[in-house]
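Its record is set out here:
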Amino acid sequence: MIKRGQITIFVILGIVLIVALVLVGVFKGEEVKKGVEKQITSVGSMSEYVAEVEVIVQDCLEHSMIETFAELGVGAIGNYKEDFGKILKFKVLECVDFSSVNAKVVSEGIDSVDVSYAAGNTKIQVNLNYDISIEKDENVKRLNKFYSEVSIIPECCIPVQVDGNCKAKESSNVVSCGRLFKIDQGESLEMDGECSAC
């Protein structure tokens, strides 16, 4: 009888132990699941904050490039690219405002501004190395490379007579959009697939 009683006690203790382990597993599983869901939500939110910061910087960069070009105009004053970069750096820092972002955004400054020309000197390209960190909950994302390109020839036409292929019929010097153009006979005035003559 004693052995039978001991076996019964061990069986009951075993059942209690198994039930306890199952309950702990279920509750721990819920905690783990909630933690994973919170982390996934946090990462999703983080990508939204990153996108918001990128848009703010990109808009400021493009706006500042247009303003800087308007200030400097067209010409060979000193080192144009260097002067453009210095003014642009100041304007971008003056423009950015991260107060609308629902995360901690730390601007660590602009390391470099690389200015170049493209499309036959009709566009200015800028590579901006601007260190920014975005912090939310325990997540941190760092950004530092931004790029923009703006046309330095405004949307206007060049007053010269052209043939059906958009080539100048005669040589001439004309002023348009505040710039002097020296047009040679037979020169194509086609830009981006459209004729810029009027």
Summary: The radius of gyration is 33 Å. The chain has two domains: 35-151, 153-198. The beta strands are 104-118, 123-136, 139-151, 172-176, 179-183, 190-191, 194-195. The longest strand covers residues 104-118.
